[in-house]
Amino acid sequence: MKKAAITRLNILQKAFELIYEKGYLTTSIDEILATTAVTKGAFYYHFKNKDEMGIAIINELLKPSFENTFLKPLTSGGDSIQTIYDMMYEILMDNEILKVEYGCPASNLTQEMAPWNAEFTKALNDLSSEWKEAIINCIENGKKTRNIRSDVKADQVAIFIMSGYWGIRNIGKLNNSKSVYLVYLKQLKDYLESLR
Amino acid sequence: MKKAAITRLNILQKAFELIYEKGYLTTSIDEILATTAVTKGAFYYHFKNKDEMGIAIINELLKPSFENTFLKPLTSGGDSIQTIYDMMYEILMDNEILKVEYGCPASNLTQEMAPWNAEFTKALNDLSSEWKEAIINCIENGKKTRNIRSDVKADQVAIFIMSGYWGIRNIGKLNNSKSVYLVYLKQLKDYLESLR
DNA sequence: TAAAAAACATACTAATTAGTATGTTTTTTG
DNA sequence: CAAAAAACATACTAATTAGTATGTTTTTTA
């Protein structure tokens, strides 16, 4: 990788960590510069302004990592009910980047930025749509292989599952403990089984 | 009401509106003063600092309104499944204070303030706990009247329902449309019926 | 009704903020 | 290797922030 690309990636990564921990609007550029040992001149060479950096974090960092952990597991084949449950278990319990006390990065940004910048909302909506489509596909697959009832409305279930995920992230943040994740996962399992 | 109490309530109400729309940390005291026509001297007479006002908003405004719309409907008696569904429908579709584009005030504050002030988290956790208990009671009632299966784990279901609510608020914010609420409610209905 | 306390008003401060102006250094290219 | 472009560095600005210092006015109380 070229040196300039390293600088840019370094800014994005450190900025993401700070933003994930304490929010976008309350993470100052000076703070990002301090933890990266990058100067302001370099920062504004790579990004027109703070929001451009924010969008870059979503598209260049969040998106690829999201596709790996949220989407890829859904294409494994096998039993659809189990596949969806496993994906959720991995995301909530095993993922090393996502921390219960910080919630979901995409959810945090949605909450915080919706009133301020429509570009953020649009970029985050893309992620959300991708996930929804992947869940729908997985369910439709399950219907084909007779693991899921044919009368199940895939899009309806997809939205229900996604809302559960985002909500439990919020409850986790409130309780600062993964134990609510386990309670949620148990009920998710029961719910998913009711779709067979 | 005494005049001083009116001033205080006025600050809390206008501050709540601004905070609900654009966040706590990004709502400045000067902005609150501008929309209330209250001066800084008056503000700091009533509140030691900004955070004390924030906590007062939760305890003196959010809590009572929350108890009316989230808790009271759950004690109506009648069919528990229907009672829970009706509460959720009312909150999402009919409530005049809660707006789809702004999300849930309690959820917003949880997301935003968890990294900054544990007092906020504690106060919000109290609301969350109250709701959870009310849902659990409602389910246990349903079990007694044979409307809900005896093997249903009330606390598990309560957390599952709450997470769904918080999540769909987030998705609503992302889509800026109540239509996802209706999709969610349909699936919630199916899910609740599976508990009979 | 006069003294005391409560309630409010104004002008300030020190810190922090995103962003800019104007440089210098490093890398690439012909 | 020299010119040009890319990449970075430093010092600044104007606006905004929470909070304070020091008052005045209004209300309550003895």
UniProtKB/TrEMBL annotation, chains A, B:
Residues 28-47 bind DNA. GO terms for molecular function: DNA binding. Coiled coil: none annotated. Pfam families: TetR_C_13, TetR_N. Residues 5-65 form the HTH tetR-type domain. PROSITE patterns: HTH_TETR_1, HTH_TETR_2. InterPro entries: DNA-bd_HTH_TetR-type_CS, Homeodomain-like_sf, HTH_TetR, Tet_transcr_reg_TetR-rel_C_sf, TetR_C. Keywords: DNA-binding, Transcription, Transcription regulation. It comes from the Bacteria. The keyword DNA-binding applies. SUPFAM superfamilies: Homeodomain-like, Tetracyclin repressor-like, C-terminal domain. This is TetR/AcrR family transcriptional regulator. It comes from Flavobacterium microcysteis.
